[in-house]
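The following record pairs a protein chain with its ligand, NAP.
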Amino acid sequence: MTTATRPSDATCPATVTRLIIVGCGHMGLAIARGLLGGPPGPEIVVVDTDAERRKALAEYDGLTVTGELDIAEDDFVTLAVPPQVFADFADAERHRFTPRTPVLSVMAGLTSRSIAAALNTSQVVRSIPNTPSEVFEGMSVYFADAEVSADTVARAEALLGVIGKVLRVDAEELVDDATALCGGGPAFVSYIVDAFCRFAVSRGFSEEAGREMTVQVFAGTAALIEESGKPPMQLCHEVMTPNGTTERGIAAFDAADLGGSVVAALAASARRSRELASVMSR
Ligand SMILES: NC(=O)c1ccc[n+]([C@@H]2O[C@H](COP(=O)([O-])OP(=O)(O)OC[C@H]3O[C@@H](n4cnc5c(N)ncnc54)[C@H](OP(=O)(O)O)[C@@H]3O)[C@@H](O)[C@H]2O)c1
């Protein structure tokens, strides 16, 4: 595994002149918005079959919006359609791809080999980004097999690097685990954040105050973990005065096996990613 760029160091590769994002829902738009807000980058074309969605996307300056896919020779294609529709997409659009068309998939579950076979291109980078990409705080994990050229890998990594941190893995199944941890992570964290906010409101804080306190606690803790380099449980113990208030709260977490529940939830999510691979074998 190798860690690549941080957002502040990232520049969009001049070699990608036109990026086509196929499927511009939550994830496709997060990527597009991240790229639009970054350093001058490629022309961005978004292709979406949903007419209402296209109308909404047309509001964004800098996006070319269309319902029809058309791939030119130097285009770089990002696939952000739901995995369940990919087989039909591939049947309908395969003829537009050449064996060297560079493809960055962000689709959960689908393996790089199955995507490559369905589109008849050898240049597939399989990644899993996440929605904080929209605010340059994304975490993307990707895999590329030996057939993918260094140029395609560099361009895919540079695109992902504009919208957050990037990690390359050399075993593709780790992308399924990263799909749980990084792709779904913002949902899991938001779920917990919501519980903090509900507690605040139940005790008489306004929704705004509850949100402000909670977000600052999460952001501050993430910054402390990163900058101190200390293990998370050490930081946990530093807050837990013996027989104090936090110790009582952690005891309630332990009684409910919260840690075990979180690990089980991530494992269930990763299993679902592996299951999704089978939607290709119809
Ligand atoms: N959401 C996340 O946080 C996240 C994170 C990592 C990866 N992903 C991956 O990103 C992909 C998209 O997820 P999402 O949450 O963004 O889904 P979404 O919000 O449902 O967006 C998908 C979009 O693609 C459109 N679409 C469907 N078929 C199409 C086709 N043949 N050509 C062009 N556009 C088409 C959909 O239109 P219709 O509504 O008309 O079908 C919809 O607007 C999935 O593969 C998912 O696994 C998502």
